[in-house]
Amino acid sequence: MTSENIYILGIESSCDDTAAAVIHNGKILSNVIANQKIHEAYGGVVPELASRAHQQNIVPVVDQALKKANIAKEQLQAIAFTRGPGLMGSLLVGTSFAKSLAMGLNIPLIDVNHMQAHILAHFIDEEGFNKPPFPFLAMTISGGHTQIVKVSNYFDMEVIGETIDDAVGEAYDKSGKILGLGYPAGPQIDKRAQLGNPKAFKFTKPKVAGLNFSFSGLKTAILYFIQKETANNPNFVDENINDICASIQYTIIGILMDKLKLASKQTGIKHIAIGGGVSANSGIRQALKTGESKFGWTTYVPKFEFTTDNAAMIAIVGYLKFLENDFTEQDVTASARLKI
Question: Where do the H-state alpha helices sit in 70-185?
Answer without folding.
Answer: 88-105, 114-120, 168-179
